[in-house]
Specification:
This protein is about 25% helix and about 25% strand. By secondary structure, it is an alpha+beta fold.
């Protein structure tokens, strides 16, 4: 038996795998950071072997509440990811599984590789998007921006500031599938009214390195918006400059939440510039999203920020305050959607993609009131 993670987004350290009934593992920290929780590894030589894999440092993970009622994902073909029995005892996380093949992959959530990202960008460009290379990351990777539509409004959608939140790029795949469908009347109308600026992956370095939350130098990009720099956060800096050049009428920053088993929106209620207009736009958008897709809900989420308590280091607050626009964060679960559980797949890439489709219906409900 062997445990390896030397591939795109891989992250695990094997302490001992000599006993399949007590495989001892730890998760590596993000580089130059104390964050960790994302794991992605392969077990080889394990067909029909009952495995008990224990992540011994789970108690020190960034969001311990994320382990409660959590089930890891596994895949034989890296296409279909299913849930496997996982137990949290307050100290360690244990994955129990008897693989049906010689090799199986395990991960915190279904990975979205940089190779698939390249395919996503290429497919979008061949289907009508224009592409702009905004700059490069600290590891020398490309910062890709896709544009589609010819309308006067400027709608920005970004994902994966936190690289371990891979559900965000699955969501982007769904958004682009529908937005680029020539026969979809909602997509066609929105592209007449707005220009879409889409950054499918804000953090290529962290994605490739197998990080949970940070880039190549340990910067949490969603705390860099106020003071972004080329030395620490060029990813945010180049996107922020592109936003300044185009203007922003709408912004959605797509994330995943470790603890809450729901899809929900967090808005910018704490900014100094919060108005009744922004409140009404937010509520209209959320209500329309619920109608478009029952996997979205408004009962559960983060506590609403108190007035004048904004943190302009965060994208949603920075963009809302700077551009006086509707700016929100979408959160999806690492676990399952507690309102509509799926025992086999949990919250899955397919459901992320469908939620991405549905966002166009929610945007349609507010598009005429954005400016």
């Amino acid at each position: 038996m062997q445990i390896t993670a030397g591939f795109d987004s891989g992250n695990i350290r094997c302490i001992d795998c000599s006993d399949p009934s007590n495989v001892r593992l730890t998760i590596n920290k993000d580089h130059q950071s104390d964050f960790y929780q994302w794991f992605h590894f392969r077990a080889s030589g394990v067909c029909d072997m009952p495995l008990k894999m224990v992540i011994e440092n789970a108690k020190g993970a960034a969001y311990v509440g994320g382990w409660e009622n959590y089930q890891a994902v596994a895949s034989y073909d890296r296409q279909i990811w299913f849930r496997v029995p996982t137990t949290w005892d307050g100290e360690t996380l244990t994955i129990d599984h008897a693989p049906e093949t010689d090799a199986v992959y395990y991960a915190y959530f279904a990975p979205y590789s940089m190779e698939r990202h390249a395919d996503l960008v290429a497919a979008a460009v061949s289907s009508g998007c224009t592409h702009e290379l905004l700059g490069s990351t600290l590891d020398g990777q490309d910062m890709d921006l896709l544009r589609v539509g010819e309308g006067p409004l400027n709608c920005w959608l970004i994902a994966r500031q936190h690289p371990g939140e891979s559900m965000a790029e699955w969501w982007m795949e769904g958004l682009l599938d529908r937005l680029l469908e020539a026969d979809d009347p909602v997509a066609r109308l929105l592209k007449e009214k707005a220009t879409f600026h889409i950054v499918p992956n804000m953090n290529p370095d962290g994605s490739a390195r197998g990080h949970l939350r940070t880039n190549a130098v340990g910067a949490n990009l969603n705390r860099e918006w106020k003071d972004a720099s080329s030395e620490r956060s060029p990813e945010v800096l180049c996107v922020r400059e592109a936003m300044a050049a185009s203007g922003v009428d709408f912004c959605l920053d797509v994330h995943g939440d470790e603890a809450l088993p729901y899809n929900f929106i967090a808005a910018a209620e704490g900014i100094d510039g919060w108005t009744e207009r922004l409140h009404k736009l937010t509520e209209t958008f959320k209500s329309a999203y619920v109608r478009a897709n029952p996997d979205f809900q408004t009962k559960y989420g983060y506590e609403v920020d108190a007035p004048n308590s904004s943190d302009l280091k965060k994208c949603t607050d920075y963009v809302a305050q700077t551009h006086d626009c509707l700016s929100m964060t979408l959160e999806m679960p690492f676990k399952d959607n507690a309102d509509a559980p799926d025992e086999v797949y949990g919250w899955s890439p397919d459901r992320c993609r469908i939620l991405g489709h549905s966002v166009l219906d929610a945007l349609l409900a507010v598009i005429d009131d954005l400016r």
